[in-house]
């Protein structure tokens, strides 16, 4: 079995949003302002093992074999507290996480991380949760993690804005989005793998609180989601790319207008964005998206992935290039004891 005697191991993959999650309406429950929609990747998995240790007086958390540092440790312990509260257990745990993606670089390590942690911790603590409930649980670790519970294309519902807290919490979950044939690839250009200056959490808060462009973006993002679902449904990758690019650049515009401005784009990012424009001028389907960091992800046809990667590689000035395709749902690994 995947979990015996209070121990479980899970693997989850990162996701990249095509319709972005940017802005919370409830910081404690991590309820977003808007719906978002992503593609789960088939690269950079996170593997997390949770082992309950009855009688231990603290949680022992390691990331890649090294003790977790302050902020990461605090977030993981807070998350385990939530699981313990639901499970009615006081047991502390040993948590070992192996990330294959550079942490904190806007490459969604928190998405795969909290999705894997949610699945492993729920199993280790004996919570019997379906994928929907697990997506709500993962959401409490990091909003985008809710989407990594599922493979391929995934929507995360913002949930009910009226009614009780519980109704809001119950209605904010992720689920798969049906699509027509797409055969996409996502070329990831890592122009800077270092940790970012401003966390997505802090940047989101500042944007919602101070940016005059936030409300208009949130309104237009609703329309983008409707258009995106239709484009995915008819298998129209060109439209998917167009909508994803405008939604992401709009999100970055909200941050540039925040006070003080949050700017994740670097000169290298802009050079990569220029190369994406050039690809389009040359007749190649290629559209860019960016998250809370300078790295650029380029959506293209799988058949064009090598060509796109080549062009992006020369633009990325030595940065690493990865090619991702739609990836699998989070899952428990068998054989953990
Ligand atoms: O889940 P967080 O708090 O790391 O926020 C992620 C926000 C973006 O990556 C910028 C957008 C998204 O929808 O993933």
TrEMBL record:
Keyword vocabulary terms for this entry: ATP-binding, Lipid biosynthesis, Lipid metabolism, Lyase, Nucleotide-binding
GO molecular function terms attached to this record: diphosphomevalonate decarboxylase activity
Lipid biosynthesis among keywords: yes
Transmembrane segments: none
E.C. numbers: 4.1.1.33
Domain Mvd1 C-terminal: 187-315
Protein name (record): diphosphomevalonate decarboxylase
Annotated organism of origin: Streptomyces atriruber
Lineage: Bacteria, Bacillati, Actinomycetota, Actinomycetes, Kitasatosporales
Gene name of the encoded protein: mvaD
